[in-house]
Amino acid sequence: MTDDKLVIKNVDMSDEMQQEALDCAKTALDKHNIEKDIAAYIKREFDKKYGTTWHCIVGRNFGSYVTHETKHFIYFYIGQIAVLLFKSG
């Protein structure tokens, strides 16, 4: 699954953090098949590396409107799977 096309739709974070998000999502997709488990993996990794409180939504079809801390937001696709990751709180 990690060979799927990667498309960043919207981003407000450093290049280093962006790359970490993409790498973390690829690892999550390799380790897990259930969207909830993929989201939980990414959230836990970002909470550990960048401090709490991160939120992650993973799926094929969802709408969103969120408030996030400056420089702590990314929304991207890996293949057909969308990942929304942001820090708030």
UniProtKB/TrEMBL annotation:
Q: Which InterPro entries match?
A: DLC_sf, Dynein_light_1/2_CS, Dynein_light_chain_typ-1/2
Instruction: Give GO cellular component annotations, separated by semicolons.
Output: cytoplasmic dynein complex; microtubule
Could you tell me the keywords of this UniProt record?
Cytoplasm, Cytoskeleton, Dynein, Microtubule, Motor protein, Transport
Any keyword Zinc?
Answer: no
The record's section on Pfam families has: Dynein_light
**What top-level branch of life does the organism fall under?**
Eukaryota
PROSITE patterns linked: DYNEIN_LIGHT_1 (PS01239)
Which subcellular locations apply to this protein? Cytoplasm, Cytoskeleton
Biological process GO terms, please?
microtubule-based process
Q: Could you cite one Gene Ontology molecular function of this protein? A: dynein intermediate chain binding
**Which Gene3D superfamilies does the protein's record reference?**
Protein Inhibitor Of Neuronal Nitric Oxide Synthase
Q: What does this protein do?
A: Acts as one of several non-catalytic accessory components of the cytoplasmic dynein complex that are thought to be involved in linking dynein to cargos and to adapter proteins that regulate dynein function. Cytoplasmic dynein 1 acts as a motor for the intracellular retrograde motility of vesicles and organelles along microtubules. May play a role in changing or maintaining the spatial distribution of cytoskeletal structures. Also a component of the nuclear pore complex.
Self-association or partners: how does it assemble?
Cytoplasmic dynein consists of two catalytic heavy chains (HCs) and a number of non-catalytic subunits which present intermediate chains (ICs), light intermediate chains (LICs) and light chains (LCs).
Which family does the entry's similarity section mention?
Belongs to the dynein light chain family.
Q: What protein am I looking at?
A: Dynein light chain
